[in-house]
Design a protein that fits this description.
- The protein has helices at residues 18-28, 36-47, 52-62, 66-75, 95-99, 102-113, 155-175; strands at 87-92, 119-120, 126-131, 143-145, 148-150.
- The protein is built from 7 helices and 5 strands; from the N terminus they run ααααβααββββα.
- The chain folds into 2 domains: 18-75, no CATH class; 87-175, Glutaredoxin, CATH 3.40.30.10.
- Helix 6 (102-113) runs parallel beside helix 7 (155-175).
């Protein structure tokens, strides 16, 4: 189960419509023969998270009890049942990273973005989480930002990356 120290902030995005969810499941051809994890991944890729109504519909179509679906979703850290920010920052808190200063990396994210572990900002730009291990101990401390691994991370380097992302988001907002 994913580590969370603070509850996620309430999402400010509208939930996908039932019609949109049903249409997408139709497009995927979801049936009792479908692979649960594969369908979960595709639904999350489409909506950015796993809406409860999508999980209920999947359960009915696949003839899988909702409790079993939630069991799978809660077991794998890759799945989210709440909306996520456009940018996801994951910091490792495993032993090798801890020994090499991951605490300072985690503090940098928290102070720069104003987010605690497990939170998403109100404008849905950034989500922050820590994980038990990212499996790249030789590169410790490690952070993953938008799916890209950054090894030998320092607070200064992370601050530069976050500043660039914040500036990109500000520029994108100015254009709209």
């Amino acid at each position: 189960m994913p580590h969370q120290t603070a509850p996620a902030k309430a999402p400010s995005l509208p939930m996908p419509a039932e019609v949109e969810i049903a249409s997408f499941l139709d497009e995927l051809g979801v049936s009792p023969e479908s692979n649960l994890i594969g369908v979960l991944q595709q639904v999350q890729d489409r909506f950015g998270f796993l809406p409860a109504s999508a999980l209920r519909r999947m359960g009915r179509r696949m003839r899988i009890p909702l409790s079993r679906i939630y069991g799978v979703v809660s077991f794998y850290a890759q799945f989210y049942t709440t909306p996520r920010g456009k940018h996801t920052i994951r910091c490792c808190r495993g032993t090798a990273c801890h020994v090499r200063g991951s605490k300072h990396i985690i503090q940098t994210v928290s102070s720069r973005l104003g987010l605690a572990d497990g939170q998403t900002d109100d404008d849905m730009k950034f989500s922050f989480e820590t994980v038990a291990c990212l499996g790249a101990c030789a590169l410790s401390p490690v952070a993953i930002i938008d799916g890209k691994y950054y090894g030998k991370m320092t607070p200064r380097r992370l601050e530069q990356i976050l500043n660039r992302l914040v500036a990109q988001e500000a520029a994108a907002e100015e254009k709209t």
